Amino acid sequence: MKNFKFKIIGGILIIVALFGGFLSSCTEDDGKPSGTRELVISSVSKTVVIPANGEIPETVLDSTTTLGFAGQTLIIRGKGFGTLRKVYFNDFDTYFNPTLVTDEVIFVTIDRNTPYADVTNQLKLVTEYGTATYDFVVGPPAPGVHSFNPINAADGEEITIYGSFFLDPVVKVGGVEAQIVSNTLTQIKAILPAGSQLKKVSVSTIAGTTFYNTSVGTAIFDDAFYSPWTIEAWNNHEFVTDLTKSNQGLVFIKKTMNAYDNIQGNWAWNDQLSNYTGIKFAIRSEDAGKLKLVFNGDWGETRLFETTKDWKEYKYTWEQLGNPAALQNISFQEFSGSTNTYYIDNITYTVD
Q1: Gap between the Cα atoms of 222 and 247, Å rounded
Q2: Which of 71, 141, 228, 329 has the most CB atoms around its CB within 10 Å?
Q3: Can you list the domains of the chain with their CATH numbers?
Q4: 3-class SS at 132?
């Protein structure tokens, strides 16, 4: 399965010059762009980037195609584009930058929300003088992987992968294909193959491959705490179930903390750390905030981090945590000096 990768090139002026046009259309005396009124689409090309190698600079090529994917930048060639008004893919109105249009060339990016099922499979251009169509198939975006559960499933057990654009997916764990039990566009149920522990899960479709960054068998908390870890009820926290607002799975932790309040994990002992490189967790807050990671009872002010309204992942290596002999406790203290609501999810060990 190929992993298609595309990007818009900053030096697009050079590209347009190389492939047949100027960015600024010349104008006639009446103020209208010059060029033919006859509207013709002769070809559509995809941009391909060849990475720099040693002294060879990055190269941008294009190759003709009749298949594109949401988010991909295309080069449309023909004539009569000077008075371009609209670009449609499968009748979906698509934004274009007028400065990237000449009478013979259009640079345009397929919108991520372009429909791809039960559609016309056509590119349509509308100018002041007419309309032209071109047979062109738009595929879905690369799959989006939100998360999977349970993180600590054993080999041979079923996991559920949450995400988007799961069209004819292939699931692999550590490069080994997993058996798919069922799938929809937003959810896949699959069986972990042998040797899955501490490996990454990936989902591939015709549009590309996406890896999830939490490895199998590393969870301390995903939708629930794994023994011996927990947060005791006296912390007055909540468990919220909402896939649309979580960072991982369905459930996350919520606590409103007054200035310098805290949320404390229980005390336990795990000295089997050799397979791991540290810990990570995801946090967001109702307002901009600041927390302190209290690791193994160390309340010093050496592990402060700021939080925002968006989920952010924070990683600490064992070296940053003082090369502990064991994991005993994970707690957090409010450190902005103001009351704030914090959300915590996906507390795991790291393996990379």
Answers
A1: 9
A2: 141
A3: 12-139 (2.60.40.10), 144-211 (2.60.40.10), 219-350 (2.60.120.260)
A4: strand
| Residue 300: both structure tokens together | 């010093």
User: Cα–Cα distance between 221 and 200 in angstroms, integer?
Assistant: 17
3 state SS of 15: helix
Cα distance between residue 182 and residue 191, in whole Å: 10
Residue matched to tokens 């996991």: 159
- Cα 32 off chain centre by: 42
pLDDT digits (tens, 9 = 90+) for 157-169: 999 999 999 989 9
Name the helix (H) or strand (E) containing 16: helix 12-18
- 193: its two tokens: 């193959």
C-alpha closest to that of 284 among 223, 329, 345: 345
Tokens found for residue 326: 């064991």
Three-state DSSP class for residue 36: coil
Name the helix (H) or strand (E) containing 55: none
Angle ∠(193,194,199) on CA atoms, nearest 5? 80
**What is d(CA 254, CA 238) in angstroms, rounded to the nearest whole number?**
5
- Sequence-distant (6+) residues with CB within 8 A of 75 are 19, 44, 45, 46, 47, 62, 105, 106, 107
Question: Residue 346 — very low, low, confident or very high, per pLDDT cuts 50/70/90?
Answer: very high
| pLDDT at residue 60 in the model | 55
Cis, bond preceding 150 (omega within 30 deg of 0): yes
Q: Pick the residue with more confidence: 331 or 61?
A: 331
Q: Percent of the chain, pLDDT > 90?
A: 80
Ramachandran angles phi, psi of 233, nearest 5°: -60, -25
**N-terminal to C-terminal alpha carbon distance within the chain:** 25
d(CA 336, CA 237): 19
Token pair for residue 150? 């349970």
Amino acid code (one letter) for 279: I
